[in-house]
Amino acid sequence: MKFDSHAMVLLVRPPDAPEFPEDEAARLQDAHLAHQSALYDRGLVVAAGPLRQQDDDRLRGVVLLSVDAETARELYSQDPAVRAGWLAVQVQTWMVPAGQLSFNEVRLPASAAEAQG
What we know:
Blueprint: E1 3-12, H1 22-41, E2 45-50, E3 59-65, H2 69-77, H3 80-83, E4 88-97, H4 112-116
Antiparallel strand pairs: 1-3, 1-4, 2-3
């Protein structure tokens, strides 16, 4: 059987994440979403979204990419929220039977206002 491989990034709130004033946290979230949306526009992100009602509140979101794990690490090391220490990444390669997954092209929000609107 053939397998497709995808890099899966778990976005995690580190235990030592800095606290930001509300306006700065909002700006950082928008910068994170803009970065992720730009990666999608380049064809690198397949799907992404926040996690809710998870057992571990440190887990903030999941990103599935069409690149190898090392490239995913490099791409997300440039994420403004990661650079600020607000998020950390855990990267793994996810193997699925070839052709099992398909996604519709739906643009990712580039800001919190766009995500809520």
